[in-house]
Every structure is written in C-alpha cells, then in structure tokens.
Design brief:
Low-confidence stretches: none
Distance between the termini: 20 Å
Shape: elongated
Structural class: mainly alpha
Order of helices and strands: HHHH
Largest sheet: none
Number of helices: 4
Mean pLDDT: 81
Length: 140
C-alpha cells in the first residue's frame, strides 16, 4: 500500500546451514593454529618478560584479525580464539607431580586476561556475513 517493495523474507528467518566441507576444514585448522599459538605464547611470555608477553598477545591478535579478514566471516576469528583459550586453560592446570606452567605473577595474569580480552575484541570486530539480496536498510 505504501508503494515500497518488501523483501521476500528476512535473513533472520532463514535456517542456519552448516558450513561447507572446505570451510569446516579451514575452521578446524584455524582452531589448531590458535591452540599452537596459545601453547607457544605460554612458553614465550615468561621467558622474555615484557617483550615476550607483548609478542604473544600481538601474535594472537594478528591471527584472529587475519583469520577473520581472510575468511570474511566472524567464525574465522572465533575459531583461533577458541583454540587459544582451550590450550591456555588446559595449560593452567597443575600436574600431579607438582609441575605447572603458569606461575602466580603479573605476567601470567596479564597473558590470561589480555589474551581473553583480545579474543573477545577480535571476535566482536570481525566481519559479519551480510544477507544476499537487495539492501532494504536506510533507503539504499
């Protein structure tokens, strides 16, 4: 009645589709790369304290941002962030022999909290897939 054409259906009304096989393999690879980066960062950050901490956090940010931009989707940034978080959380537990990787100190806490903050920021700012079809927003 108003003369405007309404889109056939909203993007929110569309069912979720699983990713293609290639994209799923890519996400698994990014998850594994994030886990390796988390383990490497856990070893580097106490070795060269201020520089190692900054290097480990910058590497995580670079991986998450790069993966998000390379895939063009938020899942590309979330996959390495989840791999990093899982590896770091598993490395925080102490072993029955009494060995541990993270000592109680400012560097370890900055690595854990800073890494989680970077993962959340990168996953939030990653590109979001736009629905296909005409742009119905803001009279474009």
């Amino acid at each position: 009645m108003s003369g405007r054409e309404e889109p056939a259906s909203s993007a929110l009304a569309q069912p979720l589709r699983p990713p293609s096989a290639g994209r799923a393999v890519l996400y698994v690879g990014l998850f594994a790369l994030g886990a390796v980066l988390g383990a490497a960062g856990a070893l580097v950050q106490p070795a060269w304290f201020p520089g190692g901490l900054l290097l480990a956090l910058a590497a995580e940010a670079g991986l998450c941002v790069g993966a998000g931009r390379a895939t063009g989707r938020r899942g590309g940034a979330v996959a390495p962030a989840l791999g990093w978080a899982l590896a770091v959380v598993l490395l925080t537990t102490s072993r029955p022999e009494g060995d541990f990787l993270f000592a109680a100190g400012a560097g370890s806490y900055l690595f854990l909290i800073g890494g989680i903050a970077i993962a959340v920021i990168c996953a939030t700012l990653a590109p979001v897939r736009q629905p296909d079809g005409g742009s119905a927003r803001l009279r474009k």
